[in-house]
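Example record used in the benchmark description.
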Amino acid sequence: MANTIKVDIVSAEEEVWSGEGTMVFAPAEMGEMGIAPNHSPLLTRLKPGEIRVQQESGEEQFFFISGGILEVQGHVVTVLSDTALRAADLDESAALEAQRRAEQAMSDRSTEMDLAKAKAELVQAAAQLRAIQKLRSKGRA
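Model output (structure tokens):
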């Protein structure tokens, strides 16, 4: 039996996925990082993007997160995010519409707070679209 690590991916509303993996890839603020079994304890912020969990069977699980926190403790990796979706649940047309709305809001902004919110929404929509394109190129979407 190969060494595995327990992975929990949780959104604000629900547990999205829980299972075992041999490797976890996540979009940390300073770049993509990989977590293997027996990784040292870690707490880091995540940016919007794709979480990938490789399983013992060779299969991979794909998720989109809107950003959040990744914690490694012992043999457990926990991803906490406001929004976390299985790759199969990503909606390209909704992401394109969100991107269009964010771009419009950036040009129509009335305050600095509006601009910051629009930029954050644009980053999230762009990350969703990149995840969709990446999955499509791998034949998963």
